Amino acid sequence: MSHTSDVRHDKDFERRGLYETEAERESYLRAGHTLKSWLLTTDHKRIAILYLFSITFFFFVGGMAAGLVRADLLTPQGDLLTNEGYNRAFTIHGVIMVWFFLIPSIPNTFGNFLIPLMIGARDLAFPRLNLLSWYIYMLGGLFTLYALIAGGVDTGWTFYAPFSSMFANGHVVLVAAAVFVVGFSSILTGLNFIVTVHKLRAPGLTWGRLRLFVWSHYATSVILVLATPVLSITLALIAAERLFGLGVFDPALGGDPLLFQHLFWFYSHPAVYIMVLPAMGVVSELVSAAAHKPVFGYWFVAGSSIAIAVIGFLVWGHHMFVAGQSMYASAVFSFLSLAVAVPSGIKVYNWTATLYKGHISLDTPFLYAAAFIGLFVVGGLTGLIVAMLAIDVHVHDTYFVIAHFHYIMVGGTVSAYFGALHYWWPKMFGRNYSHVWGRLSAIFIFLGFNLTFFPQFILGYLGMPRRYHVYPDDFQVLHVLSSAGAGVLGIAYLLPFTYLFYSLRYGPPAPANPWNAAGLEWTVPSPPPKHNFEEQPVITGPPYDYEMEYKDA
User: Of these four, 213, 317, 338, 358, which has the most CB atoms within 10 Å of its CB?
Assistant: First the structure.
């Protein structure tokens, strides 16, 4: 759009009263209105918005596949889908939700937007690489959508060999290529974050003054850079075996299917922490802001992020307790899996201690943070159960495992994602939203989630295997309860997107610091200017200096 059309746009907005603050006139959102200005931007904030809209799209595609699965499970005979259709529905749900929503959601959206603001930088270290990461992400997404339209794939998101390499019907190579491609997006984003945190911190911002959100993203980035290449190589080997008959995983060709599981879970178990660690960083910020207190035990919370990242590399074998590995290896993996509970427990205890005697504001972000803590505790405690050899034999590959990882990955990560969305929305767009609807949506999501997944613990304990769409009549009541919960959850997920998008046009202008929170991002206008800071800030105090913030307020 030309300068003339920009002026016309300004006048139109003024006539409609949409620019109510000076910050909105000079914000990053005003730095060009053309499609080209967005698609070629190197501003970390605009790239974060591109991710926000892309990831939201994939969230609803993956959610619709989940709705199809739950609708099919309403009847014991699975009357809605064929066997093949059911396999394809839960596969596309898993592939999209894991690799196109859960892994990139918080780092690529909120990490992109906030890390430079939190460390006093103008942008990430490699702005063009950041834009390239988004294009790679979209390329992987297009591959997946094409595979979905062309008939889908039936391997499950785990691509277990030799089924995926020799026998599966559908577009295995195309979907594996999509995950292979999107892995490069994660690696580039992780590299960018690591270099940015090392090189672009404001003067005086020592490692001990970094916000816990930044610490969690730093630990996540290390996992992304070290583990993702292993997944990429594994998927490339699957494609090579399927296309050229290379004997890597197929026993008939001299391969070993267990090798695939070792390689896949070496990445995919740390991937759980790629999803959860950024969520923990978000919750640390929300809890501190809600209590208006520094996070209790700062170094323990920061150190626990690094500990989770390190131990997370050593526990992949607990996915193979019944796969034929040696008893001694299983015992070691069981012990290490239980050890992850220590740094995770430190975080929960420190968040609780932060809230103790705090002046807690029951705002929407805090409700999501409280939901995260509750759901994460349930998911974590059931994780201890599946880490124990004897019990895992009983519940392995049942709905108990499905419920466990959904409490961690969906209940935890999605709650934190929505908490982050409500906490930083006024900063990102300069507009406030309806807090009544915000609180209601948080409550409905919490209730809908528990109604969906808690019955699955019972189903799994009673012996209902996962990946089956025909089941005994005795399980129908619990399946109907779970599907009813999925319906509540689906409607509850739609609510925030309704009132948040409504707020973009009709929401009241947001002040620079609507939560009276501590942190550099709250010292710039809402929405932030294009180059973040007029002058680079100099840090002289701790990361959560609420006394100073209150004096300024």
Answer: 213
Long-range contacts of 68-73, Cβ-Cβ distance < 8 Å, separation of 24 or more: 69/93, 69/469, 70/452, 70/482, 70/483, 70/486, 70/487, 71/483, 72/469, 73/469, 73/471, 73/479, 73/482, 73/483
Residues 286/212, Cβ–Cβ less than 8 Å: no
Please tell me the total number of residues recorded for the chain in this structure.
Answer: 553
Q: Are 239 and 176 in contact (CB under 8 A)?
A: yes
State the Cα torsion 352-357-361-367 to the nearest 10°.
20
Give the Cα separation of 135 and 143 in Å (integer): 12
- Label residue 30 by pLDDT band (50, 70, 90): confident
Q: Model pTM greater than 0.90?
A: yes
DSSP sequence for 307-319: HHHHHGGG-GGGG
Instruction: Tell me the per-residue pLDDT of 157-170, one tens digit each, with 9 for 90 and over.
Output: 999 988 888 888 88
Please give the C-alpha separations between residue 397 and each of 333, 391, 405, in angstroms, as whole numbers.
18, 12, 12
Ramachandran region of residue 337, left (φ > 0), alpha (ψ -120 to 50) or beta? Answer: alpha
Chain CA centroid to CA 345, Å: 20
Q: In sequence order, which residues have a C-beta less than 8 Å from that of residue 387 and are 6 or more positions away?
A: 318, 334, 337, 338
